[in-house]
Give the backbone structure.
Amino acid sequence: MRRHILFGLVAVFWAAAFARDSFETWVNTTDLPPLLNATSTEVRDRNGALLRVYTVDNGLWRLGAAPQNVDPKYLEMLVAFEDKRFFAHSGVDPLAMLRATGQALAYGKVVSGGSTLTMQVARLLEDSGTGRWRGKLRQIRVALALEKRLDKDQILTLYLTHAPYGGNLEGIRAATLSWYGKEPTRLTPAQSAFLIALPQSPETRRPDRNFLSARDARNQVLDRLTQAGTLLDDTANAAKSEPVPHQRHPFPAFAPHLSDRATTRNRDARRHDLTIDMPLQKSLERLAAKALRGKEERLSIAILVADHNSGEILASVGSAGFSADGHRNGFVDMTQAIRSPGSTLKPLIYAMGFDQGLVHPQTLIDDKPVKFGTYAPQNFDGQFRGQLRVADALRLSLNIPVVLLTDQIGPARLMSAMKKAGADPVLPSGKAGLAIALGGIGLSLQDLTTLYAMQARGGKAVKLRWRKEDPLTEGERILSRAAAWQVGHIMSEMAPPAGASNMRLAFKTGTSYGHRDAWAVGYDGSHVAAVWIGRPDGTPVPGAFGGDLAAPVLFDVFQRLKPKLAPFGPPPPETLILSTAQLPLPLQRFRGRNAVFQAPPNSLELSFPPNGARLEGVETGLAVKVRHGKFPLTILANGHPLATDVRQRTINLPFTDKGASVLTVIDAAGRSDRVEIWID
């Protein structure tokens, strides 16, 4: 029966050829099928590497492909095997049809097909079979019409995009990514032969289901190409020893959260180019999974890395794994979640204080109990350090000094600075209060990275961007160059977390109220990175601290980012680098207008222990420090003299009483000062 069909097709073709006018009309009036079937949406990194690919609506992996994107040797082998006169015929090859008919008549069965690559494209576009003569005639007509309207490269592009490769794979790129885990730009002869054989019978030759059939079909292609002179014997024999793939590779799915954002923003685009660096992204996704290994099962993690000079986001890890399974809620992009930033805003507050002339890094500031109406901030450990330098207050991340400074700057001004820098802070109560200095505000990881990028680039804002098409957008100056350099210098002198390399990274950690969020943010001369660890549902994580959880990950991020940190520049010429004693008198000591225990300048002061201090380890005596006042001094404990005729500023008192006590110092002029302490 099939012999008669082939004979009939040849007869029809030649009859049509003689009736040229009718033939031309017949071809020109062909109603072609759609040539632009939907292809998979692709998300690519800054260098064009495939980050993620999506299936089309019917669940097919169908990636667009063109001849220039495919190994030339594969194309040579494909044409030699399937349609050796492809570049000469006009859609139908009469010689191939005659050969196929002759073989069918001689052997009593179809030995070789007469279909050209163009006819195969026609069949693929219409999803038509090959067994009926009407279907074959339709393929001939469509093939002839395609050749009139398209060039050979365009026809090859259609084949390379639509050829079936088993299961839900269509097109050469889907095939090589799935079976070999790579793009088709470089293929071995064995791989090329396998990819030529598979579309002929994509289900029966699937190597994951019928390995032997796939191998035999590949070897038959190699043998025929050797006989045709396309391959050398040695090349074909070596190719036969190469294994056929046993199973499919997963399609790339890197930066899944950011990829989803890109496709949601523009659903019609088939390609999205991001600023992401794929090798770094892959490395940090592995780091995120490693960081949570063995940790509490509901923890999640987010990491963001950007070039603060260009504003380009180089890596964005929204969770340890993109999955709705389990307790980590990996489908939630925690780079965008609004969370309490803890202490991570302190560098910005101090820098604003520097700019407003309120303090200098060497200014002395009090760490004593204070109260602003009903708000009485406490340090994280409940201790008080007394008087210390502003730089030390930042390094120790003390709460009271930064709240005193925020009171002078004004919470509204701090909010304005964050918004101008490009962040989008959220106030839980709708009103900015002093608590925002300690994390009483909502920010995303991207917001926080934006703020630190501004500090890293000398106080000038930049909009972080993740799409390659978006231009560099610089904002206004938020901090002076000197203030930005000073906070960076202070943070770069902080000790790295235990076990981390001793790199000079300017970084700050933070822990939100109730141990809900652990943060670490840092930068060098070129890059800024931020890490968040916590539970997506916002519930507390007992014992979680930014310094313990997030900081080690931050240092690992920079080690994976580059072998050596980019140095910070020198201080701007206008930077005031002086000791405390060399500072102008108003900058030597900070005195906030709302400080509860504020004393007149140069008055007698019991500077240590600070008021409200809780002390341990005083079995050998209590160390007391006194500032100013006229000798001799008298020191009392709970109204009873401990030392008289004291003529030094530091003295060790024989006092070890447990519990609450009141220490009082009186100088020769009758002036006094007192503090309340507790000894454990």
Summary: The mean pLDDT is 89. The chain has 21 helices and 22 strands. The longest strand covers residues 300-307. Residues 2-18 form the longest helix (17 residues).
